[in-house]
Design goal:
Layout (H helix, E strand, L loop, with lengths): L2 H23 L3 H6 L4 E7 L1 H7 L12 E7 L20 H7 L12 H14 L8 H15 L1 H7 L8 E3 H12 L4 E5 L8 E11 L4 E2 L16 E2 L2 E2 L1 E2 L5 E3 L9
Parallel strand pairs: 5-10
Antiparallel strand pairs: 1-2, 1-5, 3-10, 4-5, 4-9, 5-6, 7-8
Length: 255
């Protein structure tokens, strides 16, 4: 092949490769319309409860609320070609390991949990500019975590891990008073012989503009994100207002 033709062939190949890379890492207007969502669920989970759900794979969980995920309410797996790349969040790793740890797998080098969150939820959140890269998505979640300060909010309300039970209505009222919106709270239902549900997850909701908004679903809305956490045979579900609520400090059964 002559040098001139080789030169143009290389340029053509490079242009096509670059174009393919760009289309897999950006969203067109049609992409946004095909993956519509209205709000973000910012989910915190209580590591002790996560461990109770699957104690065999969990050791010495953090004693503070950690991030489970930042989830658009109506879309999942929006761009299967946009693969998770841990090097894009290398500047965030210290905070990620502390505030967004893989509770069930304690290895510091394990990134499967973050990959799952990016693949399933981050690729959909990326339709808005403020979340349109892996660094922006994970970085903004860390920023929201500090801003929300769920751990501090609960402590200020006198709600802390205890062997005593709480009323779910009291927990809801405290959070609503602090944030000015209605959160979504999920619990582990009582097992046989237990009388109390165990608090496991608290979700705070935001608009696309990252303004706080009620998590309650309006009548007529459909296909909200399925924010259940399933581990082993246990599953979190929306807490009952009538059952006593256990906020455990240790991974152990509570009758």
């Amino acid at each position: 092949m002559k040098p001139a033709k080789l030169h143009y062939w290389i340029l053509g190949w490079f242009s096509m490769a670059l174009c393919g890379w760009c289309t897999s890492h950006t969203f067109t207007q049609s992409d946004i319309q095909s993956h519509p969502w209205k709000k973000l669920y910012f989910a915190h989970h209580w590591p002790v409860t996560v461990c109770k759900m699957n104690a065999n794979d969990c050791h010495d969980p953090p004693k503070y609320w950690t991030i489970h995920g930042l989830w658009p309410d109506r879309a999942e797996d929006c761009n299967r070609t946009w693969h998770f790349n841990v090097t894009e969040i290398k500047d965030l790793l210290s905070d990620m390991r502390h505030y967004w740890p893989d509770v069930l797998h304690s290895s510091l080098n394990r990134t499967q949990f973050w990959k799952h969150e990016w693949d399933k939820h981050g690729t959909c959140a990326a339709t808005v500019e403020v979340l349109n890269s892996q660094k922006k998505y994970f970085g903004k979640a860390l920023e929201l975590y500090q801003h929300i300060d769920l751990n501090g909010c609960l402590l200020k309300a006198g709600i802390k891990p205890s062997s005593s039970y709480y009323k779910m209505t009291a927990i809801k009222e405290a959070l609503t008073r602090f944030y000015g919106i209605t959160p979504k709270i999920q619990c582990l239902p009582p097992e046989e012989g237990e009388k109390a549900q165990t608090i496991g997850q608290i979700e705070i909701c935001f608009t696309k503009e990252l303004q706080l908004v009620n998590c309650t679903t309006l009548e007529g809305d459909s296909n909200p994100v399925q924010a259940h956490l399933e581990l082993g045979t246990s599953e979190l579900s929306v807490c009952s207002d009538t059952l006593p609520t256990y906020y455990p400090s240790e991974v152990q059964d509570h009758k």
